[in-house]
Amino acid sequence: MPLNARVFADKCTDCHSRSLRLFCNLHEEALVRFDEIGVPMTLPSRSILFEEAQRANGVFVVCEGQLKLSTTSREGRTMILRLAGPGDVLGLSATLGNLPHEVTAETLEPTHLKSVRKGEFLDFLEKHAEVGQNASRALAKEYHEVFLDARRLALSGSAAGRLAQLLTEWARAAACGKAELRFTMALTHEELASMAGTSRETVTRLLNQFERDKLITRRGASLTITNPVALADLSQ
Q1: DSSP per-residue string spanning the chain
Q2: Which of 22, 84, 95, 136 has minimal CB crowding within 10 Å?
Q3: What is the rounded distance in angstroms from the CA atom of residue 191 to the CA atom of residue 66?
């Protein structure tokens, strides 16, 4: 097996990361039941999990990997709203509200998920109070992230500030409390520009500038923030 290969735990009871994840941090009885109703699935990079306006048939818990959540205007313009990663629950609000999906979810890298049908998930919520509590926290987290994204676009005065804030947020999320701020940049420059509210050319220029100023280093798709204080100052 290659050194960088990841081993997925098909059973939630075998997952060593569940205590770090908002929804998955459940007691043994609930985890066993979730293993019974959850279906493991793996999607390759750039696969559509579900599409905007599609009927929601259940929820998906991200175990490993990364997805982009986007929406498209009537004129065909696409906006990336946020990225989803391990521990996120996709399709939750649509399932609970009996509504179509409000976004399109597409994988940015090979992604491992647990799929749960709508009826079984609602029954799971009803029988395990802690699941309802964790689902509420997951929805609150999702709302908070959307709020932060809206505030970044509305209040940050420069493209450099918006890009710096995005990189800092992703690095901190990937670090899980560790000192090294490093993550895999799976977005293209055009997709990154969509999230930063600027052009692809500006993103390319700013990333090169950040690297020349020794704020970041890049090795392939891996990006490390080497001067987090200076980078954070740009987003003020």
Answers
A1: --TT-----SSGGG-TTGGGSTTT---HHHHHHHHHH-EEEEE-TT-EEE-TTPBP-EEEEEEES-EEEEEE-TTS-EEEEEEE-TT-EETHHHHHHT-B-SSEEEESS-EEEEEEEHHHHHHHHHH-HHHHHHHHHHHHHHHHHHHHHHHHHHH--SHHHHHHHHHHHHHHHHHTT-S--EEE--S-HHHHHHHHTS-HHHHHHHHHHHHHTTSEEEETTEEEES-HHHHHHHT-
A2: 136
A3: 14
* Residue 180 dihedral angles phi and psi, to the nearest 5°: -75, 125
Q: Tell me: domain 12-154, CATH 3.40.50.2300, correct?
A: no
Question: Could you state, in chain order, the average pLDDT of each consecutive group of 10 residues for the chain (236 residues)?
Answer: 43 79 86 93 96 95 93 84 90 94 95 96 94 90 77 74 90 79 91 90 97 95 94 83
**The whole model's pTM is what?**
0.80
Please state which of the four CATH numbers 1.25.40.10, 3.10.129.10, 1.20.1250.20, 1.10.10.10 is assigned to the domain occupying 157-234. 1.10.10.10
